[in-house]
Design goal:
This protein is of the alpha/beta class. It contains 13 helices and 10 strands. α10 (about 240-255) packs across α11 (about 260-270) and α10 (about 240-255) packs antiparallel against α13 (about 300-305).
Length: about 300
């Protein structure tokens, strides 16, 4: 397993996504995935208040509490997801409610990295930073980040935080894979996907990117075996991504791993300083992804894959 530093914390470059834990995955199956990931050297786990209606946080919390090495793990959760009416939830009241509920559900005293799940650009960044600062000061949240925020908003928020000596965003979480897509592909305009504008920003600012969907939901494997669904095709199937699939297949054969595994290594090797959130639902898929956990692609290999 390869590692990076996030605000001084050692974090595995492969992050285990806990979205399906608790529902549809049973607690036993979830624990098996977490155990295997930890045995491989992984220490970063990504969940969210909204995942499985809180069951994901509950399962991850019980797993962590059953261990004696909680401090060695980097727990990520997310709050402030819009409600069922698509109403944004970035008010201090909403932030407070989600943070306290997450801590209670997790059964933990602190969260290592808290992401805001969505942005609402009508809310001033000052109000958001001011709302989060007390939770950091009082130790409930160690670090804060922004998920599905444009890089320009993160820069603005961090500029404000720095001016007052308040904690700023130390990380971002957006859709990022070798197979590029757009919010339209997800049918969700509240998402932010890596594109040329975002990439240019992240090459200049010292904020790491936690990439969700780094393996493009298995696009490369399903394209190769002819099982591409209509929804996945709508999201990813372009001439550009098909050309990338061919190059990925060739390099994967050279490295002795599957294209799906290498697509995660592409993220974890990227010059923008990225971490790949792998969303595996069973042990064989996790084992396959982990075959690439030690692979570092050179800048030339990354450029080759991107074309």
């Amino acid at each position: 397993m390869r590692y990076g530093l996030v605000a001084g914390r050692k974090v595995s470059r492969f992050v285990l996504g806990a979205g399906p834990m608790g529902d549809p995955l049973s607690e036993a199956d979830s624990f098996a995935l977490l155990d295997a990931f930890a045995a491989a050297g992984g220490n970063a786990i990504d969940t969210a208040r909204i995942y499985a209606d809180g069951k994901s946080e509950a399962v991850v919390g019980r797993w962590l509490n059953a261990r004696s090495d909680r401090a060695d793990f980097f727990l990520i959760t997310k709050c402030a997801h819009p409600d069922e009416t698509k109403k944004h939830r970035l008010s201090k009241k909403d932030l407070d409610a989600d943070i306290y509920t997450s801590l209670e559900t997790l059964g933990l005293s602190y969260i290592d990295l808290l992401f805001l799940h969505r942005d609402d650009e009508s809310v001033p960044v000052s109000a958001v930073i001011d709302g989060l600062a007390p939770h950091v000061a009082e130790g409930r949240v160690k670090l804060i980040g922004a998920s599905n925020w444009r890089a320009s908003r993160i820069i603005e928020a961090n500029r404000y935080a720095k001016s007052l000596g308040l904690p700023g965003f130390v990380a971002s979480e957006i859709a990022f894979s070798l197979a590029r897509t757009t919010p339209k592909g997800y049918n969700d305009p509240t998402l932010v996907c890596m594109n040329e504008t975002e990439m240019a920003a992240y090459t200049k600012m010292p904020v790491p990117v936690f990439a969700y969907g780094p393996q493009a939901k298995g696009y490369f494997a399903k394209l190769a075996n002819g099982t591409l669904s209509e929804s996945l095709a709508k999201r990813y199937d372009t001439p550009e991504n098909r050309a990338k699939a061919e190059r990925l297949s060739l390099l994967a054969k050279e490295k002795g791993v599957s294209p799906t595994a290498l697509s995660a290594a592409y993220i974890a090797s990227h010059p923008v300083n990225a971490y790949a959130i792998i969303g595996c639902r069973n042990l064989p898929h996790l084992a396959d992804s982990l075959t690439a956990a030690d692979i570092f692609l050179t800048p030339e290999e990354v450029a080759y894959l991107e074309g």
